[in-house]
Amino acid sequence: MKERLAQYLDHKRKRIDEALRRVMAEEKDVPAELKEAMNYSLFAGGKRLRPVLTLTVAEALSAPLEPVTPFACAIEMIHTYSLIHDDLPSMDDDDTRRGRPTNHKVFGEAMAILAGDALLTKAFGLMTRCSSGEGADAEKLIKLIDEASHAAGAEGMVGGQVKDILAETNPVSVQELTDIHRLKTGALLRLSVRAGAILSGATLDQLDALTRYADNIGLAFQIQDDVLDIVGDQEKTGKPTGRDEARHKATFPALIGLTESKKRVQTLVEEAKIQVTAASGIRAEWLCEIADYLVDREA
Amino acid sequence: MKERLAQYLDHKRKRIDEALRRVMAEEKDVPAELKEAMNYSLFAGGKRLRPVLTLTVAEALSAPLEPVTPFACAIEMIHTYSLIHDDLPSMDDDDTRRGRPTNHKVFGEAMAILAGDALLTKAFGLMTRCSSGEGADAEKLIKLIDEASHAAGAEGMVGGQVKDILAETNPVSVQELTDIHRLKTGALLRLSVRAGAILSGATLDQLDALTRYADNIGLAFQIQDDVLDIVGDQEKTGKPTGRDEARHKATFPALIGLTESKKRVQTLVEEAKIQVTAASGIRAEWLCEIADYLVDREA
């Protein structure tokens, strides 16, 4: 990764980490065991791609970061809860994540389920802090909370996880695999970008361009994950290669080949960049850099 | 139960059932398996005590039921998700609930966890529908969504479930047991009453009286559950008696005796009735009837 982008991402990531720490420190009346389990996964060293995107979008619209930060943190909490639940023995049954034991391996299944539940619940409380307390703002925020519920729920991320589980026993087409990704990871990524835009007062045109940007990089990100599962360096990705194949998981390389998969990532990223560069009033530099990074990344 | 109260509750319950069916029918893009699992527990024939209370409070304040109904349904969804997760093998490991196999027994653990997650997520989306779309209303609703997040999360219901699990291996005092119940079941019941009041434009005095009413009947309800576990009729309660003792669960009868437990239920219910009867502008009749029913109930 370019030095400048690395610094940019690092700076944004720190902002999110600090905000998340403040939020968790405020939780006073929480059983110590539960708080520990929540913090364990929330501060496990993730890339913070989603909340960083929310901040980057606000910046691209020349808006302040303060008002969007709680929503960015809320999305990261939703992402974290989904990882905890996905790792459970009855789901993907993963023992490690990012090189550390998974939540249920450390705290037990019951506590892992409850830590996930608590993070999801907290996320919606956190979203309510994005209002200036004034009328129009409040109405906008209420609509956004509804959108978040759709993106994270049965019609979005949870629905995608269900389809993913069902796909393990049924062969899927490229269209179906695209659909699974659109829901399982795309929906929340799209929310990250749209929340940043909506809370920063984006015009409809800007919101439209940013939504397409999000959908393109969301899918590119997922295909690249599939690619890295084959060609990635375990030292860098933190997970063994070839896992998808061993688990008979549907992947883009398996369906359309490795070369075509890489090409598709490239096309999606180019398309994403065109969207935000062409829209008026968007300072697209960092959004483009992030899109490029998604292709070049090794982890 | 008195015939009139039975009819009243039945009428309110039907209203909630219809509203919940409408909400679930709107969920178009949901995998069929997931929707089935959500519906299975959502329409398992529960008492609907929480949402009925929300409606009853609105009525007691001479307010329309329409604006509070989505919130009432949202609380029932949160209650339902908590039951699905509580029944899981890693938690209470229950095979039946209300005389039917538990969710994970029918749909498997993964789907049960996800159905719970989806219901919790949907609940927050549903809450957003309680706004007239006008400024002051929207601000009030945002505060209420935050309150719901606290009531259902790590500082409320989820925290209570954690404390309950920890209490299985550590002896608890009456104060600690009261605290567990206050969080595990009391917080959501309090929310049901407060949401009905806040959305119906209650004065601060009315809100105060209703909150105390909720706290009193919440604890009474839980102690009565403990009592019924000992003296209840399995045919009526739908669960075998003596389960708490067999599981070494901390209960009020175990800590303060059966007679004292019954007496305490009576006192709490009387106190609840005094609160709402004394407050001005509250038509307390049905709230009192419901409080009495909590003592007299056999299931």
TrEMBL record, chains A, B:
UniProt key word Transferase: yes
Keywords assigned by UniProt, alphabetized: Isoprene biosynthesis, Magnesium, Metal-binding, Transferase
Residue stretches in coiled coil: none
Xref: PROSITE patterns: POLYPRENYL_SYNTHASE_1 (PS00723), POLYPRENYL_SYNTHASE_2 (PS00444)
Catalytic function, reaction form: isopentenyl diphosphate + (2E)-geranyl diphosphate = (2E,6E)-farnesyl diphosphate + diphosphate
Required cofactor names: Mg(2+)
Listed GO CC annotations: cytoplasm
EC top class named in words: transferase
GO BP term (any one): terpenoid biosynthetic process
Top-level taxon: Bacteria
EC number(s) per entry: 2.5.1.10
UniProt GO MF annotations: (2E,6E)-farnesyl diphosphate synthase activity; metal ion binding
PANTHER family per UniProt: FARNESYL DIPHOSPHATE SYNTHASE
Family assignment from sequence similarity: Belongs to the FPP/GGPP synthase family.
Name listed for the protein in its UniProt record: Farnesyl diphosphate synthase
Species whose genome carries this gene: Novibacillus thermophilus
